[in-house]
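Figure 6 in text form: structure in, sequence out.
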């Protein structure tokens, strides 16, 4: 396993909350599990520390970084603005997304775990921006969604919040099906902004 592969594996585990926020990361255990020495594990953790996903504490070693209200306040409004831009830019092509969005939201409404909810919520939002015609914009949105993965697991752990999101998605689908890009964009912004406020209440 290369250093890059090791770093990506640890990043994925942290983002998916397989390594919980604040949980100690045992370098020796990781090295033994993956059949590598401790050196590349430490190098990968140092890189992740530079990206803010890992923290080093004297006497404890490396930990998955705790969740941060500051990151929520900084990231969610950016996602909302970029998704509004993408939906607005999609124009007449927006209506053609309605069947797939409706299908995805039906599946989303039936899930029972945070992991399933996040996967389908992310799919819903990917579909929503997929025809904006700006690959750079789609890439920026995708990167930001990846950054908040740990927070989405917290949000979707509550069944009431999953239900609330499904209703908000349904409003988005209705606007998309009607070809009302501005109404859809406002509904998308409301969905993301409300999620942010509810998350902040828990952090």
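Output sequence:
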């Amino acid at each position: 396993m290369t250093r890059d592969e090791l770093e990506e594996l640890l990043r994925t585990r942290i983002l998916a909350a397989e390594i919980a926020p604040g949980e100690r990361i045992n370098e020796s255990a990781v090295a033994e599990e993956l059949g590598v020495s401790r050196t590349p594990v430490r190098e990968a953790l140092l890189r992740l520390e530079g990206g803010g996903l890992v923290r080093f504490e004297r006497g404890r070693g490396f930990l998955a970084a705790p969740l941060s209200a500051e990151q929520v306040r900084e990231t969610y409004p950016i996602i909302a603005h970029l998704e509004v831009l993408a939906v607005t830019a999609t124009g007449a092509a927006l209506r053609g997304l309605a069947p797939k969005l409706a299908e995805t939201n039906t599946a989303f409404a039936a899930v029972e775990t945070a992991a399933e909810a996040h996967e389908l919520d992310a799919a819903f939002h990917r579909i929503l921006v997929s025809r904006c015609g700006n690959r750079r914009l789609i890439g920026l949105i995708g990167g930001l969604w990846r950054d908040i993965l740990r927070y989405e697991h917290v949000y979707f752990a509550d069944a009431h919040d999953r239900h609330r999101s499904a209703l908000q998605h349904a409003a988005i689908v209705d606007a998309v099906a009607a070809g009302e890009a501005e109404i859809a964009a406002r509904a998308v912004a409301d969905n993301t902004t409300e999620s942010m406020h509810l998350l902040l209440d828990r952090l």
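Caption detail: The longest helix spans residues 69-90.
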